[in-house]
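Researcher: We plan to redesign the surface later, but first we want a full-length starting point. Tokens attached.
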């Protein structure tokens, strides 16, 4: 788990986060790239999947505003199958009322640092659906570049995606700048 950033802290998601998770995963604007809001069962399945991933040290965690203790989003590292390979990926989803404040980039940046310091990987990726411009802009703010385009089947829909990534060397170079 990353250390606190200037505005954010991180912790495991639990059952008590279901209302905050619904504020993200059942919001039509937040879920455009996921082909629409989840139902209650899909939200619960999502939570259980993250909790399963915690056993390996991975998974999306709750992102909490230090000032208020409010859970405003999710961010973390997972293994994703991208363009034929299993890679370390940073994911980020925030409720709409927390957008446009730099929280996603602040959280994801902390997870890149965590990933490069705890995992023996040369690169960390971010898979972004081709319609998800806000997410692409986060990847770009993180210093990532596009590696390839690939297609993914999700919820019965064929979705073109871009594979963004940043190398360890580039991450360290940016962190020192
Ligand atoms: C993707 C997502 C997390 C991006 O959130 P975001 O708030 O746009 O991204 P950031 O946290 O990087 O915020 C950047 C914005 O905050 C602004 N900002 C304000 N205060 C800031 C600060 N102190 N520091 C940095 N940026 C700040 C920036 O100018 C920028 O503004 P803009 O969006 O108007 O250009 C959000 O759209 C989301 O949760 N979408 C739904 C889920 C999703 O699709 N996730 C990605 C799946 S691949």
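Model: Full-length starting sequence:
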């Amino acid at each position: 788990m990353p250390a606190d950033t200037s505005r954010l802290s991180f912790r495991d998601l639990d059952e008590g986060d279901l209302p905050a998770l619904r504020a993200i995963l059942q919001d039509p604007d937040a879920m455009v790239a996921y082909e629409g809001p989840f139902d209650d069962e899909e939200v619960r399945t999502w939570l259980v999947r993250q909790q399963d991933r915690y056993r390996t040290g991975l998974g999306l965690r709750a992102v909490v505003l230090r000032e208020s203790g409010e859970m405003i989003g999710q961010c973390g590292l997972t293994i994703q199958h991208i363009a034929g390979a299993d890679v370390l990926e940073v994911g980020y989803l925030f409720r709409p009322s927390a957008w446009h404040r730099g929280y996603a980039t602040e959280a994801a940046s902390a997870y890149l640092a965590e990933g490069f310091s705890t995992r023996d990987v040369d690169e960390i990726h971010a898979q972004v659906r081709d319609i998800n411009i806000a997410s692409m802009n986060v990847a770009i703010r993180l210093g990532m570049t596009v590696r390839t385009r690939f297609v993914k089947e999700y919820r019965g829909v064929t979705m073109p995606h871009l594979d963004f990534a940043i190398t360890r060397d580039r991450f360290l170079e940016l962190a020192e700048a």
